[in-house]
Amino acid sequence: MVTNQASLKRNGVQDFVTIRATALIMTAFTFYMCWYFIFTPVITFEGWQALFSNLAMKVFTFATLISIMLHVRIGMWQVLTDYVKAAALRAAIQFILNLIAFVYVAVGLFVLWGV
Predict the structure, then answer these.
(1) Would you tell me which of 12, 22, 34, 87 could form a disulfide with 67, CB atoms 3.0–4.6 Å apart?
(2) Residue 6 has what pLDDT?
(3) Which has the closest alpha carbon to 71: 34, 31, 25, 110?
(4) Are 60 and 99 in contact (CB under 8 A)?
(5) From CA 62, how far away is CA 108, in angstroms rounded?
């Protein structure tokens, strides 16, 4: 049997790997931010601005935002296909959730880089 590796269709393995990878990125970001809050004695605007002015932190934050978007997209697709049987309703809910996730990333991009 020949499989098409260049297919644009998703499969279960790709979804599984994407969910796990995005979860790792989000967990690493959460732990880093917890560490920052615990070990920074006084959090000021200047300290907060200095933290997010670093290019590595901007990239890490943006990667986390993209991870949230992908995680929501796949997770909600899985939940909705299990529990919402009406195809039109499921498509509408998926569209709204995907739009919200995209807007979330777009706003994050504007906040991080002031685009």
Answers:
(1) 22
(2) 47
(3) 25
(4) no
(5) 7
Q: Return d(Cα 80, Cα 58) in angstroms, integer.
A: 32
Residue 104 contacts residue 69 (beta carbons within 8 Å): yes
Residue 102 lies in a domain: yes
Cβ-in-10-Å burial (0-12, 13-18, 19+) of 76 comes to middle
Q: Which domain holds residue 90?
A: 13-113
d(C-alpha 100, C-alpha 115), whole Å: 19
Instruction: At 53, list the tokens.
Output: 């002015």
- Give the CATH number for residue 37: 1.20.1300.10
Q: What is the mean pLDDT of residues 78-85?
A: 92
Reported confidence tier of residue 2, pLDDT bands at 50, 70, 90:
very low
Flag whether 78 is in a domain.
yes
Would you call 115 helix, strand, or coil by DSSP? coil
Tally of structural domains, the chain: 1
Is 4 inside any structural domain? no
pTM greater than 0.85: no
Within a domain: 8: no
